[in-house]
Design brief:
heterodimer, A: alpha+beta, Butyryl-Coa Dehydrogenase, subunit A, domain 1, Butyryl-CoA Dehydrogenase, subunit A, domain 3, 3 domains, 11 helices, globular, B: alpha+beta, four-stranded mixed sheet, 10 strands
């Protein structure tokens, strides 16, 4: 048996022993997802048991090094773990922007002290992070951001406002882009880390068309951010005034994540399931579903190819933009078709039968896919400039 | 298996790329034969060069003198064929007929494969009846007669039928027109008495025939595989051809896209390069995404075919449909973005449009294959 086959068998056994049956059920409600953090509580004991088993094993962040709370899996092993978890429908034990966003930034740009402290906190689900990027006047043109940190020697005093801060009202800490030099647009931004309980920080949830409020406005009113949290633990990632490098790196990660390149629901075929649900399909709708399934199955192959190529450095560095563009447009189309197949039942907003309007709320939620993390139009700009090398600004 | 070419495949791609760009170039082949009103629509000299390059035996087993490689490798050659619009009997002979002949007797393989591998023989496949690809229904009949069969009926869209030394013909030997079973594949030699070709030039200047079989007498040893059990071989042959045609289509799409993107970088209007206009940039970027995705679908389908996966048929249809839509987009955008000169015969972009149209139709268009995806998925 090869090493990888052995690993697969061990993983299968471990999951069998440690993943409770309830944790293999599809996620139905928001509290089925465990986000961790100081304010978090578990929905029930099984959720807690599954989470704790994973923390112990390093499986909340399997590909991170062991000293930072991970399991130190190589890409091939991580893929096997993903496959085996997906085969039994295992829920992620912990979801967080620390895992998806800050963690990768720290692994790439962080000091040893930052890694030791923050990565371990993230892996153990102790601190829940939020992301402070967009501002009311800086959406697609993010680099024009105005939130300003005035240098006061051993600390900055930060004033300004962020918007679209995901779950800011539930987060413990924020990673935040702050202007520290007004004279240099690109080299005048610092990637700061600070506690949301610092005096002067306040949040206000934004009610969306889906009726949900996963995003907030976040206000900074004379917030004092120390420059350091101790030896080798600066309060910023990378260098002062070079936060845009970190932000760009992270946007690549975010786009990859939103693209759904790693498979799952967003890219699977839907025709057969909708037929079962609807009983009979209008022939023109059936045709549309068939064309959609062609695109979805082709995109799944693209996702697989993209990840395979990334592993060996064959992928164009701007390719995540293409994945994000195609994946999000596909997902929007998917939910349009689910609404059409669902008929008037899909319109219900809070009935029990629809799980509180799941179909319609999810449909509305997907409209943000092609806006958040860089709009489709920005993605197309990047593809035309960086991949096709078309001329102009 | 990772979804990219391994080192050997990358080497093959490089040599196929170089060979086709030099020997298979549009001016040297497509325009050359078209402008001479060539009755074959391709050059036999180039076909022999294919043989020397080893291309023709890619799907032929080593025991039969081939290279014993797979659909990924055949697809590499086809993508370059598509990119250069190189006219050749590669798809019908080295992919479709070669796949059918894998199931043939020692005698059949010995009779036909050496000529194929050397680039001396050309094969065609006769499946379609009528103007659309509907292989579920086969009415062409082969009735028992003595030790052999008597073949009657008509086949259409027989690509390179009149140039072929042998035609793989799907005929009904029992049951009614739409029965799954009762199909037999025959290897019909070019000099078979009672076979007649009505040759027609197609929009892309390739040649096809409406072929009539008027009581064509065939020996029992012309049967490929088993009598009445030819459906599985037919399906294998069609899937191989569909995936191959999709690979060629990706080449057509990439060729058209590259030519168009280059043009956007050269053409000036309103005092600026038109490639600076966002209206065109976004369309080009969208096209790029579609072409990348189509190419991934094709490689996936090739790998599944090579692995003998049960999902290969589904993915073959996904690839064929996706490529048909994508290459169609590439050539339409190509002609539009070239503006007026895109409508001229002098510029090559129109040739891509014509080739794409013929390829889309070959072995089932996007509508046929999307429908097949729905059926195979259970709706």
């Amino acid at each position: 048996m090869s090493e990888l086959e052995k690993f697969r068998q061990e993983t299968r056994n471990w999951l069998e022993a440690n993943c409770p049956p309830e944790m293999r059920e599809p996620v139905r409600d928001e509290d089925d997802v465990y986000w961790g953090g100081r304010k978090a509580s578990f929905k029930n004991d099984t959720q807690k048991a599954w989470f704790e088993a994973c923390v112990e094993k390093g499986y909340t962040v399997p590909a991170w090094p062991k000293e930072y709370g991970g399991a130190g899996l190589n890409p091939a092993e991580a893929k096997i773990l993903r496959e085996e978890m997906s085969a039994i429908g295992a829920r992620p034990p912990l979801s967080s922007f620390g895992i998806w966003m800050l963690g990768p930034a720290l692994l790439h740009f962080g000091t040893e002290g930052q890694k030791q402290r923050f990565l371990n906190e993230i892996a153990r689900g102790e601190i829940r992070w939020c992301q402070g990027y967009s501002e009311p006047g800086s959406g697609s043109d993010l680099v024009s951001l105005q939130t300003f940190g005035e240098d006061k020697g051993d600390h900055w005093t930060v004033n300004g406002q962020k918007v679209w801060t995901s779950y800011a009202d539930k987060a413990d800490w924020i990673f935040c882009l702050v202007r520290t030099d007004k004279n240099d647009k690109y080299r005048g931004i610092t990637f700061m880390l600070f506690d949301m309980e610092t005096a002067g920080v306040s949040t206000k949830p934004i009610l969306l068309i889906s009726g949900n409020s996963p995003f907030c406005e976040t206000f900074f009113d004379d917030v004092d951010v120390p420059k350091s949290y101790g030896e080798d633990v600066p309060a910023y990632v990378g260098e002062i005034n070079r936060g845009w490098d970190v932000a760009k790196y992270l946007l690549g990660h975010e786009r990859e994540m939103i693209s759904g390149a790693d498979g799952g629901d967003r890219t699977s075929a839907i025709g057969a399931a909708l037929k079962r649900q609807a009983g009979e399909l209008d022939p023109v709708l059936r045709a549309e579903l068939a064309m959609f399934d062609v695109d979805a199955l082709a995109y799944s192959a693209m996702g697989e190819k993209f990840l395979d190529e990334i592993k060996v450095g064959k992928s164009h560095p701007a390719q995540p933009n293409m994945m994000k563009y195609a994946g999000t447009e596909l997902n929007k189309r998917r939910h349009e078709l689910m609404m059409s197949a669902g008929g008037s039942r899909a319109l219900e907003w809070d009935s029990e039968e629809t799980g509180g309007g799941k179909t319609s709320r999810n449909w509305l939620r997907t409209k943000a896919n092609s806006i958040e993390g860089g709009t489709s139009e920005v993605m197309l700009n990047v593809i035309s400039k960086r991949i096709l090398e078309l001329p102009g600004g | 298996m990772p979804l990219y070419h391994d080192d050997d495949q990358a080497m093959l791609a490089e040599s196929a790329n170089q060979f086709m760009a030099e020997e298979g170039a549009i001016a040297k082949q497509l325009r050359h034969w078209r402008d001479r009103d060539c009755k074959d629509g391709f050059g036999h000299g180039l076909w022999e060069q294919f043989g020397e390059m080893g291309f023709n035996g890619i799907l032929v087993d080593e025991a039969d003198g081939g290279l014993g490689m797979g659909h990924v490798e055949a697809g590499i050659v086809l993508e370059e064929i598509g990119r250069n619009l190189t006219p050749s009997p590669f798809l019908t002979s080295s992919v479709l007929a070669a796949t059918a002949l894998k199931h043939g007797s020692d005698d059949l393989r010995g009779r036909y494969l050496p000529g194929l591998v050397e680039g001396k023989s050309v094969f065609a496949v006769a499946v379609d009846e009528g103007p659309k690809h509907r292989p579920e229904t086969i009415t062409c009949k082969a009735e028992r007669s003595g030790n052999g069969f008597k073949l009657s009926g008509q086949k259409d869209f027989v690509v390179q039928g009149a140039s072929a030394d042998m035609l793989v013909v799907a005929a009904r030997t029992s049951g009614s027109d739409s029965d799954e079973q009762g199909i037999t594949l025959f290897a019909v030699p070019r000099d078979a008495a009672g076979m007649s070709h009505d040759a027609v030039r197609l929009v892309d200047s390739s040649m096809a025939t409406h072929t009539k079989f008027d009581g064509v007498e065939l020996d029992g040893d012309a049967v490929i595989g088993e009598v009445d059990n030819g459906r599985a071989i037919l399906n294998a042959m069609l899937d191989a051809g569909r995936v191959g045609s999709a690979a060629e289509g990706v080449g057509v799409a990439r060729g058209a896209m590259d030519m168009t993107v280059d043009y956007l970088k050269q053409r000036k209007q309103f005092g600026t390069l038109i490639g600076e206009f966002q209206a065109l940039q976004h369309r080009a970027a969208h096209l790029y995404s579609e072409v990348e995705i189509a190419r991934a679908a094709v490689i996936k389908a090739q790998q599944l075919l090579d692995a003998g996966s049960e999902r290969a048929s589904l993915m073959a249809s996904v690839a064929k449909a996706k490529v048909a839509k994508t290459a169609g987009l590439a050539v339409r955008e190509g002609v539009q973005m070239h503006g007026g000169i895109g409508m001229t015969d002098e510029y090559d972009i129109g040739l891509y449009m014509k080739r794409d149209r013929a390829l889309q139709e070959f072995l089932g268009d996007a509508y046929y294959h999307a429908g097949r995806v729905a059926e195979l998925s259970g709706y």
